[in-house]
Write a sequence for this structure.
């Protein structure tokens, strides 16, 4: 079963990934989760890494804002996410960042129910400046362990997939994501996570056995076991994730499957 957040605005689930910062220069990754909102209020958090790096409900509550921690923080906003109450939404966010420039690219995919994820437009709505600061404290459903912006509703499986070495995921270190890199990220990482499986690790093996950290906080299992896979070696263990306030729900995210599908035109070979 999923976990229900939002009975108090301080509900959260938090752990530390000191070796796998989100948003660091020449690093890339994907954060994905299943969300069933029962209320939508601007500023409520889907997730955060370090407090400033975050995904939150936008002023137009059917969309989300993505923030990157910089000297002056940068804000992106989706268009066409269509977040709505009393529906299961799968939302995946890919990031590639390079501090020289700086150059940062976000890609977002979403689905409702068991529908296959499709790309969502995301654009800068608040320009920032300066180098990005990678976050290491991962919070599900809030901005931090002391945050007061809890998501309201249920959260199922949550995946944190981050390159620990440059070039290990997106296959460049310049902050961009081209069409082919987007297609590979979608087919090899986003779709397997959406299905509840583990993704293909792209180039992690050629860099290092520690090229990728993949953490699964599978709240649908009614527990919070975290699985960590580094480059092709699988390590599964119970590790410390602190759930505060959130409670087990009777709800559960859909079990997604892929039969014969027509891939989105933007991602076809």
């Amino acid at each position: 079963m999923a976990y229900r957040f939002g009975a108090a605005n301080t509900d959260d689930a938090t752990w530390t990934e000191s070796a796998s910062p989100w948003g660091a220069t020449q690093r890339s990754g994907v954060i994905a989760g299943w969300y069933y909102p029962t209320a939508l209020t601007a500023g409520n958090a889907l997730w955060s890494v370090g407090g400033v790096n975050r995904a939150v409900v936008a002023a137009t509550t059917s969309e989300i804002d993505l923030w990157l921690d910089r000297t002056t923080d940068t804000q992106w906003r989706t268009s066409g996410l269509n977040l709505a109450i009393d529906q299961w939404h799968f939302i995946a966010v890919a990031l590639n960042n390079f501090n020289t420039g700086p150059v940062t690219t976000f890609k977002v995919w979403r689905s409702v129910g068991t529908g296959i994820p499709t790309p969502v437009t995301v654009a800068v709505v608040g320009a920032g400046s300066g180098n990005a600061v990678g976050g290491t404290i991962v919070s599900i459903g809030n901005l931090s362990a002391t945050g007061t912006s809890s998501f309201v509703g249920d959260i199922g499986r949550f995946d944190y997939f981050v390159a620990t070495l440059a070039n290990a995921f997106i296959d460049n270190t310049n902050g961009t994501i081209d069409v082919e890199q987007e297609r590979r990220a979608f087919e090899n990482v986003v779709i397997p996570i959406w299905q509840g499986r583990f993704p293909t690790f792209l180039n992690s093996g050629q860099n290092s056995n520690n090229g990728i950290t993949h953490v699964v906080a599978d709240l649908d299992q009614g527990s919070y076991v975290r699985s960590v896979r580094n480059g092709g070696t699988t390590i599964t263990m119970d590790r410390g994730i602190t759930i505060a306030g959130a409670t087990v729900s009777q709800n559960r995210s859909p079990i997604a499957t892929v039969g014969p599908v027509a891939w989105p035109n933007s991602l076809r070979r």
The chain has one domain: 3-267. The mean pLDDT is 85.
